[in-house]
Amino acid sequence: MKKIYFALLVLGQISYGQNSIKKDSTTTKFLEDVVVTASRSAMSKKEVPVAISKLSQKTINETKATAVYEIINKTPGVLMVNLGNEQHSMAIRQPMTTNAYYLYLEDGLPIRPMGVFNHNALLEINQFNLQSIEVVKGPVSSLYGPEAVGGAVNLISVKPSEQPELKMGIQADQFGYRRLQVAGGTTIGKVGFQLAGLSSLQKDSWMTFSNYNKDNSNGRIDYNINSKTRLIGTVFYGQYYSDMTGSVNEKDFYNRTYKSTTNFTYRKSEALRTKILLERDWDPNSHSALTVFIRNNKLGQNPSYGIRWTPGKTTAKGEINSNNFKSYGVMGQHQQSFRFLNTAVVAGGLFDYSPVNYNAYQIDLKANLNSGGQTVSSYEITAERPDIRLSDYEAKIYNKAGFVQLSVKPLTSLIVTGGARYDNMSLDYTNNIDKTVGNKMFDQFTFKLGANYNPLTYAGFYGNYSQGFSPPGLTSIFRAKPGTGGNTGVLAEFYYDLKSAKFNNYEIGGWLSFFQKKLNFEYSLYYMEGKNELLNIRQPDNSTLYQSAGETRHKGIEFAVNYCPSEQFKIRVGGTTAQHTFIDFKVSDKPTDLVKDLNGFEMPSAPKWTGNSEVSYYPKWLPNFRTSVEWQMVSSWFQNQINTVKYEGYAIFNARVGYQWKGIECYVNAMNLTDKLYAYNVSRSNVTNAASSYTAAAPRTFVFGLQYNLSLKK
After folding, report:
1. Whole-angstrom distance between the N-terminal and C-terminal Cα of the chain?
2. What is the pTM of this model?
3. Domains in the chain, CATH or no CATH each
4. Cα separation of 55 and 121, whole Å?
């Protein structure tokens, strides 16, 4: 990392796309935004029949986020849940969940192969290398395949600049967080270069045992072979290590006793991704692209969420696990336009070969109890037990897919879009615990059909039907069921019968624009039915039982208002109201269990209202100064599946101030401005005497930053 920074500084030819606090014109351009994620090709937002939001480089630069959730949460209908140290879960047309219902993309390519989902995948992203972020809400499996159910998040990286440019900066807060970052590039003749580096360090924070460090590097070379052909190569390498603080009990939370119950849990990862993209413009109506890619990921954990403890007991169990995979793949795509009905076709295919291995074994713990014996003060490791294996498998995953999308424009104001994709995931596996060797296959055909109707210069509408699916992850299939295997005296049983979750989504929406585009309004209404959703049923000792059966329903309204009354003010209001319900879900056959099915219950961790709004001010009397106040709101939600206990939710304020003088920019972000006590997530099991677990949010935090932006005109 230090070598990269030194090289960047010596070259002085490093790219910074735009002035980070440059003002927009008085008219917002949200409808003129060109997006690529919704159709795999560049199109105006008002020509794609889906709910899609684009976060521009200006928004990214002004947010000055320490973690990417601060940026993504500005999207209406999206709640990226901070789990500490850039770890996260997500809620897009789903409850807050770690399930594989979201697809995370980097320049249109999935960060993970199908079957190896990780809800923390975005912690690998270099925030200093982002050109824009596009978030598609609702299923896009017909274009991108499995896991694109709740939505897809596409992180688009910075391209080399035309002229030598550089940005470099430091960032820090009062709780021991420090970050150094450098990025930039240039174009020399036919070749463009872009490099970016980021190094974060957290020590001695407000929460005990919460240190972490992260080092990411990105590189890109664009070679313009000729006016019609381009060769693009990218590489990413990242290392991450974090103490895993875990949650706190109710008493400690409300007393603001931010003390971890462990001093041994951790998460560490090492990730390498590289690809070569060949693009060819055959003529103005014909374009082809071929991508060859490699991924290499290593993940190791002693997870705090893996601790299993029964209230009143002085012993507990944990685990140590590792999950490693490599991927070798190729993806091709061709786009063709025709004069007849202004028809456009996008077609392509994917092959991905990913060998993976995973193992997890038990550790024995001592539980030091608080008075009353119903909560734990701290855990201690008493023994590591590699002889008690919880999971141990090797697999070779073969992902194959073909897709096609067709759009026609029979009328000037009407665009009809249809698409289909076939995915086939097969795996050859060896389960080293029950000594079985076999293969499994999950395949699915997904379809979508939608239309955009824009009859007026100030109003437009869209509607769509789309399908989505998500196969069970391998870590779920090959995990020994609670109460089996190890030293239980019962032969290990596994989840070989888990099924793919399937979804049908019905959606309508539209846009309105008034006062010469100074006031813009977007909305979408969706109704989504799910079958065989993967449900994590927490047991009394905090272990997890998986099920994929039954039906769920998800429905809601998303809206966004953007108002620019003048060059000095920008007002943004966004939010969603949603309901997530179990329709047919059996959880127990035991006569002693009070609740045997969840039919009609609300899904846990599913707030009915979420919103993020912001007022920004760019005073004429002080050019290059900016300030904003942001409001984040999350309403109450049920902590458990049987709907007996709720958490009240939260509403907080964040403020940001920045000023640039020549090439020097200084800024201060005040997060949780009013120092509100709140939790990002609160959950509990279904048993009567269960205790709630709180993922505590940080107290008021001041983030200070200094950045230098250099542009050398040619």
Report:
1. 29
2. 0.92
3. 2-711 (2.40.170.20)
4. 19
